[in-house]
Structures are given as C-alpha cells and as structure tokens.
Automatic annotation (TrEMBL):
GO cellular component, one term: glycine cleavage complex
GO molecular function annotation: glycine binding; glycine dehydrogenase (decarboxylating) activity; pyridoxal phosphate binding
Record protein name field: glycine dehydrogenase (aminomethyl-transferring)
Xref: NCBIfam families: PRK04366.1
Organism placement in taxonomy: Bacteria, Pseudomonadati, Pseudomonadota, Alphaproteobacteria, Hyphomonadales
Length: 521
C-alpha cells in the first residue's frame, strides 16, 4: 500500500522471463511427444480378446508389440489441437512468404468442393455418370485458355513442377517430330529462376545454360544474344514472368522473338500469373507453354503435401503434343475423355498420370473464377501489385529495396541496411516474436541476404500496416546492430535451432530415457 492507501502497482516482469510449472504459457499449452504422454502398455480402447476365432493372418501375424504409445481419445484430440496452436497459418494472419502466394482460400470454394456430386465421384466411374464433372473441367479449361490467349490446355499436371515437366515434354516431342530431338539439347534458364526450372530441364534430357541478370533484376539481353549466336542446339528458354525478383520482364517480346528465330520454344513459368491475370495474356507475349499454379492465381489450398494442380497451356505450335487424357465435347453435346495416343491424340507425348487431374482443385478454382468474374480477377491482380508496392514504400526508408522502381506482386529487399554481424536470418527469427511467419529468406540467390515479401491481394491496409510496423521496428534494431536479435525468437514454443546440425544429423527415432542411470546417480 502507498501513502494514499491504494494498492501499489506490481513490478513489470518480462514475459520471456516468466517460467511456469506446467510448461504452458497462458493459453498456449505445453505438449510433449506422443511417446512421452502415453505408454505402450495401455490403449485408448480396452477390448476383451475374442474367443474361438482363428487368425486368418497366417505366418504374417505380428509377434512383438508395436511399441506405440496408447492414448485415450481426449489425449489424442488434445495432442493434435495443441500442436496446431504452435503452427502458423493463413487463418491466423498475414503469411509473407514471397514466391509462394499464401493467400486466403474462400470458404465458398470449400463448400462447393464438398458437394456430393463432386466430392463423392470416383475416377473409374463410367463417363456417362460424370458428365457434370467433365463439363466443369471443360469450363475451367475454357477460362484458362481465354485468360492466357492459348488454344490448348493440359489439365492433368498435379503441381507447378509437374506442369513444367508437362511443358518440356511437349517441347521435346515437338523437337522429335521436327527431327531435331537429338540436336537441340540446350535449354536457357535465367539465374533468378525457380530451382525447379533447371531440375525439370535436366530431367527431360536437356543441358542447362544459365543466363545472367542485369542490374535491373531482369534478363541480361547481351548475355542472351551471345548464347544465341550458336543457335542450332537451342531447344528453348524457361523464363518466369513476372520473375522471381518480383519484376516484369520488359524485354519479353524481344526474348520470345529471339528464341523463335533461333528455332527454340518459349516456356514461361506461370508461378506468378496471379500478378498479371486479366491484365496481360501470355499468348500475346509469344509464350509456347506455361503452367498455372491454381493455388497461386485461383486460391486453391497450398502446401501440406495435399493435392495440387498445375494445368499447362500451349500455343498452336505445341498443341498437338499435349498429354492424354483430355476432355472433348462431341457434336451431340456429350463430354468424353480422350485417353489413348491415337486418332485425335496421335501426336501426344503420352500420359503423365493415371487419372485426369485433381477434381477438388478444379471445383475450387472455378468457384473462385465465377465468384470474381473477369473484372474481379483483374482487380485481384491489381490489388496484389498495389499491396506489394505499399509494403515497399512503407519500408524502403529503413530497409534496402533490391532494385530501383516499382515492383509487381512481391517486394524484394537485400540485407545492405543491416549492421555488421546482423544477418537476414536474425530479422526473420525476430519476426516470429512479433507473431508472424518469416518472409522468404536468401531467395532469389541473385540478391545478397534476400528478403522476399508477398502480401497478396487478400490483406487489408490495416493488416499491412500492422506487419510493416513490426518489421520496421526490427529493421531499425538490425541497422543499429542490436545483438539481442541473434537470440530470437524468445517467445516461440521452440528457440532457435542449429539448422545445419539438424539437417546433417537429424534425430529420426525417439529413444526412451534410461531411468536406471538416473536412479544410480
């Protein structure tokens, strides 16, 4: 009590300094491994051993215990719920990963994908019983062809890298049809490309020839022209536009013309189509093949190892070589799948997958497209670019933009503003303490200490300001050489790990503590 008789305010204590007996922190519950919660001697269900039944497993019946910990239903539910509370998600806040486009998935799309007519069908059903599904695939394909101004699309690729593979397999087939399959083996790839680009080219039997970037973060045209002086072995180019630096390749038409003049094909990585949809049609730029990540542009779920989708559109030059199966509509209005490499698909490079793509992703993407309309899709792209430029404008006085001028859908910064000893990873880890997943770090490789931020169009100005306030504060500390950044995060469930050691010597098996040694001590 003070002299006035009122209670004295308690002394302020740092949240990081508070330790609890339970290990929990407020409403964030502490959680051990499953093996530490349960025991192998117990199970969640206790059933008597059946009498008078003979095992039908023969000699493959288990002879030893599984060693798995037994849990009751409440224990199992709480375990996974507590783990989910330690994970970041788009439903919690802004997800600033650059190049990945982590944006909100409208719940309307989820509801549509779960309709019995779509959610319960089977790929082996007779085609006469899934006419509605085939019509939906055909309608989505029509939208993708219209938005890209490309005459053909393969719907079966399962993801972006799979779509790349589809595009390059079509290019290889076209070269074989021209009698140049054994001659044109060189694929040009900018040094700022996604890592899957050179990997896909190598997978298809091409050699990768890297093109340098200029000081503007775009393709160095002098280097490209030099590599095309000897053009008889050029198969094509794999180029992302907008590129991985978040910039539009302003020489795109000249690049396409040069590649075509050299006898090659233009593969455009469509990972960033979400920045230009409704504004620019890749077909108008001279593109021969381009995959489209449905999660990036049309808001289907992303990540988690679940079903993805990467439809690939083709120009007239490559349309004959698209993979089977594909949907076609007969004169009588009946939809059918073309599944054999003959007749109308006689020039196809073959089949990539057993079935025809990911139905759930198709439903979600078409629901997104129809709910936005053509004008809404255009606005979404414009808002994505606006949000990225807002972040760049908010932070450029305390951080170092990698390139001059406006960006497209993502803002890229270097670590030039940091004091000696402070690295990009320190800024990223400090952002965790502010309640955000870190941005993409050290990518693209053409920028030292890169920090790539993509806010997407689904974030409000208020949320962007909240994020920028947090990152601005961290950037100021980094510029001042604040050593406390080296210990971040302080408030996360786990502290900073030795990531190199974790990668080289991962602990892949849980081993029970030897209690006998403890007792002996």
């Amino acid at each position: 009590m003070n002299s006035t008789g009122r209670p004295t305010a308690p002394t302020s204590v740092s949240a990081a300094a508070i330790e609890t007996i339970s290990g929990s922190r407020g409403l964030l519950q502490h959680e051990d491994l499953l093996f530490e919660i349960g025991t192998p001697e117990t199970t969640g269900v206790d059933l008597p051993k059946p009498k008078g039944l003979k095992s039908r497993l023969g000699g493959v019946a288990r002879k030893v215990d599984t060693g798995l910990a037994g849990l009751s239903e409440p224990q199992a539910v709480r375990h996974y719920m507590r783990l989910s509370q330690k994970n970041y998600a788009i439903d919690l806040g802004l997800f600033p990963l650059g190049s990945c486009t982590m944006k909100h998935n409208p719940r309307l799309n989820e509801k549509m994908a779960r309709l019995p007519g779509f959610g319960d069908i089977h790929p082996l059903q007779p085609q006469a019983t899934v006419q509605g599904a085939l019509q939906l695939i055909d309608e989505l394909a029509t939208w993708l062809k219209t938005l890209t101004n490309m005459p053909s699309v393969a719907m079966s690729p399962k993801a972006g890298a799979h779509g790349e593979l589809c595009g390059l397999l079509a290019i290889r087939q076209a070269l074989i049809a021209r009698g140049e399959g054994d001659v044109r083996k060189r694929m040009l790839v900018p040094e700022s490309a996604h890592g899957t680009n050179p990997a896909t080219a190598a997978q298809c039997g091409f050699t990768v020839d890297e093109i340098k970037a200029n000081k503007r973060g775009r393709v160095d045209m002098a280097d490209l022209k030099a590599k095309l002086e000897k053009s008889e072995d050029v198969a094509g180019i794999m180029l992302t536009n907008p590129n991985t630096c978040g910039l539009f390749e302003t020489d795109i038409r000249e690049i396409a013309d040069l590649i075509h003049k050299a006898g090659g094909y233009f593969y455009c990585d469509g990972a960033n189509f979400n920045a230009i949809v409704g504004r620019v049609r890749p077909g108008d730029l001279g593109v021969d093949a381009m995959h489209i990540n449905l999660h990036k542009t049309f808001s289907t779920p992303h990540g988690g190892g679940g079903p993805g989708s990467g439809p690939t559109v083709f120009s007239d030059a490559l349309a004959p070589y698209v993979p089977v199966p594909f949907v076609t509509k007969d004169d009588d209005g009946i939809y059918r799948l073309v599944e054999q490499v003959d007749g109308e698909a006689s020039e196809s490079f073959g089949r990539m997958v057993a079935f025809h793509g990911q139905m759930g992703m198709f439903v979600r993407a078409l629901a997104y497209i129809l709910s936005h309309g053509a004008d809404g899709l255009k606005q979404a792209a414009e808002d994505a670019v606006l949000n990225a430029n807002y972040i760049q404008a908010r932070l450029k006085h305390v951080m170092s933009p990698a390139f001059d001028g406006y960006c497209m859908h993502e803002a890229l910064f270097s670590d030039a503003f940091t004091a000696d000893g402070i690295e990009t990873i320190d800024i990223a880890k400090a952002l965790i303490d502010e309640g955000y997943h870190p941005m993409t770090m050290y990518f693209p490789l053409v920028v030292h200490g890169a920090m790539l931020i993509e806010p997407t169009e689904t974030e409000s100005k208020a949320e962007l300001d909240r994020f920028c306030d947090a990152l601005e504060s961290i950037a100021r500390r980094a510029a001042q050489g604040d050593d406390t950044l080296k210990g971040a995060p302080y408030l996360a469930p786990m502290r900073r790990l030795d990531e190199t050691r974790a990668a080289r010597k991962p602990v892949l098996k849980w081993t029970a503590e030897d209690t006998s040694k403890v007792a002996a001590e």
